[in-house]
């Protein structure tokens, strides 16, 4: 096992028996991580999808320093502060129209819990209780109990299964089978009143970088509206430019009733999340009856330093040519992905905006089990941080990544199948 002083730390999504050593990172700048021994690693997955403009962006770092000296933390029940107020106004301007209220929390998972509680609170407070939630096959919405309940079930949730609440699930709208998804949702709504549909708009992240059409998203929203069900967009991964537009719902022209955002909200610098909702949802909780209060908080709700980082992020979005930058990155990605698209060691090359994904052809299902970690190890040897989802390799870089950086990433991907077949790992 580990030599010397074994760390007491228990790492996330980590089987310590198979991976006893962690990579010690001592610094980061732009798209690169610096290891303790002076090595460099290209962060091709934005440090788990959070870093948007690059690590240690000077404007975000500056905002954090300044806010930390001014006001570090204050209770947010009964109190407010400028960074939270500025951020809320800025968020409402950036998200699709119709979202008018902002509830803060600290992670993507908590933003989803808040969304689900808002939806049930809405129906209870208007006197027409509904509890049924509908979710998409392969969905991922976080690792808290509510998030796991609405997410796809598997080995990672099996232990907690008895605690998870039941949801109706509709099939993933794969190309050519879109109507089946729309019909299934319509049927689910007709069977029993549905409180809300929760979806990751246009691309399912942790479920395998599965992309679906804007048409389906618009149809799901239309069906939800027809049945009086709320439409929850979990934009925790898709938000902040990943699909080429600030938000995926905006790209598709869909106005959700509730929108969850986290990951890129601070540019990837500090933990913060927001759940935005429409006026009717807020109004249903707005009452002199204390029983209609939205009973939710976390200790660090709207932490001023995190909010200041997010305001700096908004500022970057408002003052820098983000549209051009995202389009240029998308084009660089397309060019490199297309070189692999005809390679029969791979399949299903796909892209939406700045994200690309490709599946490694694997000889058998048994091989599949360990291929993700073996690929990840190979990429690290090539000084590239990629963390495949099984045999799906995806590239989701920070927007400052250079064309030369991307060449390194794709060269490593192109070399991976033969290196693994040769048993180098
Ligand atoms: C990452 C993610 C979450 C969970 O966010 P955390 O900040 O890790 O809790 C929820 N939904 C989606 C779509 C995600 O990608």
TrEMBL record:
Query: Top EC class per UniProt?
Result: transferase
Q: Name one GO cellular component term.
A: cytoplasm
Which keywords are on file for this protein?
A: Amino-acid biosynthesis, Aminotransferase, Arginine biosynthesis, Biotin biosynthesis, Cytoplasm, Pyridoxal phosphate, S-adenosyl-L-methionine, Transferase
One GO MF term attached to the UniProt entry: pyridoxal phosphate binding
**A Pfam entry, by short name:** Aminotran_3
Residues bearing PTM N6-(pyridoxal phosphate)lysine: 263
Which positions does UniProt annotate for pyridoxal 5'-phosphate binding? 108-109, 234, 298-299
Write down the required cofactor(s). pyridoxal 5'-phosphate
Compartments (UniProt record)? Cytoplasm
Decide whether keyword Iron-sulfur is in the record. Answer: no
Instruction: State the family it belongs to.
Output: Belongs to the class-III pyridoxal-phosphate-dependent aminotransferase family. BioA subfamily.
This protein is called what?
Adenosylmethionine-8-amino-7-oxononanoate aminotransferase
Organism annotation: Hyphomicrobium album
């Amino acid at each position: 096992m580990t030599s010397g002083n074994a760390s007491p730390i228990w790492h996330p999504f980590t089987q310590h028996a198979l991976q006893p050593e962690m990579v010690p990172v001592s610094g980061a700048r732009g798209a690169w991580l610096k290891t303790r021994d002076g090595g460099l690693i290209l962060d091709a997955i934005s440090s788990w999808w959070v870093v948007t403009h690059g690590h240690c962006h000077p404007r975000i770092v500056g905002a954090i320093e300044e806010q930390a000296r001014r006001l570090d933390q204050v209770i947010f029940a009964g109190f407010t502060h400028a960074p939270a107020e500025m951020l809320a106004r800025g968020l409402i301007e950036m998200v699709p129209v119709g979202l008018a209220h902002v509830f803060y929390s600290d992670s993507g998972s908590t933003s989803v819990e808040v969304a689900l509680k808002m939806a049930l609170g809405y129906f209870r407070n208007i006197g027409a209780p509904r509890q049924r939630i509908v979710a998409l096959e392969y969905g991922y919405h976080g690792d808290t109990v509510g998030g796991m309940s609405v997410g796809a079930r598997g080995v990672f949730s099996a232990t907690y299964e008895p605690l998870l609440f039941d949801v109706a699930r509709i099939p993933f709208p794969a190309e050519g089978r879109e109507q089946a998804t729309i019909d299934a949702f319509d049927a689910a709504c007709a069977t029993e009143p549905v409180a809300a549909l929760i979806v990751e708009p246009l691309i399912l992240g942790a479920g395998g970088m599965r992309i679906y059409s804007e048409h389906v998203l618009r149809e799901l929203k239309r069906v939800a509206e027809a049945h009086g069900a709320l439409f929850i967009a979990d934009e925790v991964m898709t938000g902040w430019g990943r699909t080429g537009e600030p938000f995926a719902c905006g790209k598709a022209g869909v106005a959700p009733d509730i929108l969850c955002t986290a990951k890129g909200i601070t540019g990837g610098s500090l933990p913060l999340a927001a759940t935005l909702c429409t006026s009717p949802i807020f109004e249903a909780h707005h009452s002199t009856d204390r029983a209609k209060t939205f009973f939710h908080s976390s200790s660090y709700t709207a932490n001023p330093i995190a909010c200041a980082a997010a305001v700096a992020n908004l500022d970057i979005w408002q003052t820098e040519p983000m549209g051009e930058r995202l389009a240029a990155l998308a084009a660089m990605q397309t060019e490199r992905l297309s070189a692999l698209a005809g390679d029969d060691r791979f399949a299903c090359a796909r892209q939406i905006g700045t994200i690309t994904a490709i599946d490694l052809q694997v000889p058998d299902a048994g091989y599949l089990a360990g291929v993700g970690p073996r690929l990840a190890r190979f990429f690290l040897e090539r000084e590239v941080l990629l963390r495949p989802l099984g045999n799906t390799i995806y590239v989701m870089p920070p927007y400052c990544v250079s064309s030369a950086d991307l060449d390194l990433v794709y060269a490593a991907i192109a070399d991976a199948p033969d290196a693994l077949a040769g048993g180098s790992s």
